Amino acid sequence: MVVASMMVLGFGSSLGFFPGYFVAALRDDLGVSRAQVGLLVSLHFGCTGLGSIIGARITEKVGTRAAVVSDQLIVAIAAWTAALLDSYAALVGAAVFAGFGYALANAATNEAVAAAVPENRRTLALSAKTSGVPMIALISATLVPWASDRWSWNLILMIAGTAAGVSAVIASAVIPDIRATHQGSRPGASVLPKGFWWFAVAAFFLVGSGQPLFSWTVPYLDESLGTSKPVAGAIAGASAGLGAVCMSLTALRADYLGRARRVPLIVGLCSVLAASILVIMSGLTLGVAIAAIGMFVGFIAQLAAIGIMHAAVVDRAPHAVARATGVTMTGYYLGALATPVTFGALVDWLGTYTWAWLAMALSCAIGAACFARTNRVGNIVP
């Protein structure tokens, strides 16, 4: 079930990552700017954020199985439609359509895992489930730049759509059908703790600052540091893969430390991420090797923080998992909306990646402060 959830999240997010990995193909074929490519990423994840609260309510009504299958079918239809219509407008429509669908997947997979996995393995299970996102980023970063030199972006989207269709079939067979919060329906069970919105604010800054690691590191290495697209993709893919592995190892440590220590651990990881972004930026003067080190550390820190964050959300709202996920994911994906297009626009405007990376490091530092505030939300017994 955890593996199926990992596939759902990976393929569900694919249309949000692919544009960043075939930037050159889109610019050559459709004549779009970097900011327009970044807008596709922003629209996808922004629509996920805008739809997260509604998606959580729908998941509570229709059940986890129907929600994840619906999301995968939406991705399949969106990818094939954009590929066949062959226009920027079609890509915009696919980003919006698939983005709203992805809101269903996040709430449903959190609900399913929280119901099926005991607390002492919850962080590991939720991190493993969430690792589907960096795993699709690894595959995309490694293969898509190479494939875009040989195939059209249309064919790449068709392949992604077909993979999402296969994932829908698998999910329908193994994801449990949970239609209400697993803690029961007693009065007040679905009420979120006071101040829970701080999780949404903190997630906004964490994800906003880290999203360019997925969307802009390949163009950065290619355009500013002089690597080829396949080499840039290999570096980004290896970083995402290592991050996914370390995500699970960090989760084991978080499970051992217990509920009371999870949020402070996220604060520390946000601080590490801010420092690593500055190291990536220094690659402009110190070279590719230094930038690659920053990328490896940055992917590890961001992905580990995200995995632990999902467990912290369940800890602080155990009787309203889908609803808590919806609130948190609203901020999470609004952060993913804000920065890809802003990052691309800053680079277009200033002609350098320096200020864009500095803005991301500052955003991450703010995220660390906001997560420190979330430690006062809910009642956690050490």
Question: What does this 3D model show about the protein?
Answer:
This protein has a single domain, classed as Up-down Bundle (Growth Hormone, Chain: A). 82% of the residues lie in helices and 0% in strands. The chain has 16 helices and no strands. Helix 1 runs antiparallel to helix 6 and helix 10 (197-215) crosses helix 15. The two termini are 29 Å apart. The model is unreliable at 181-189 (pLDDT under 50).
**What is the SS-derived class?**
mainly alpha
Count the DSSP helices.
16
Q: Given this structure, which CATH class is correct?
A: Mainly Alpha
Helix content: over 70%
- Please tell me the CATH architecture by its name: Up-down Bundle
Radius of gyration: 19 Å
Strand and helix order: HHHHHHHHHHHHHHHH
CATH topology title: Growth Hormone, Chain: A
Largest sheet: none
Low-confidence runs? 181-189
Q: Overall 3D geometry? A: globular
In round numbers, the mean pLDDT is 83
CATH H level, superfamily name: MFS general substrate transporter like domains
Taken as a percent bin, the fraction of beta residues is under 5%
Total beta strands: 0
Question: How far apart, in Å, are the first and last alpha carbons?
Answer: 29 Å
Number of domains: 1
Task: Looking at this protein, list some descriptive labels.
382 residues; globular; mainly alpha; Growth Hormone, Chain: A; 82% helix
What does this entry show, briefly?
About 80% of the residues lie in helices and about 0% in strands. The protein is an all-alpha fold and about 375 residues long.
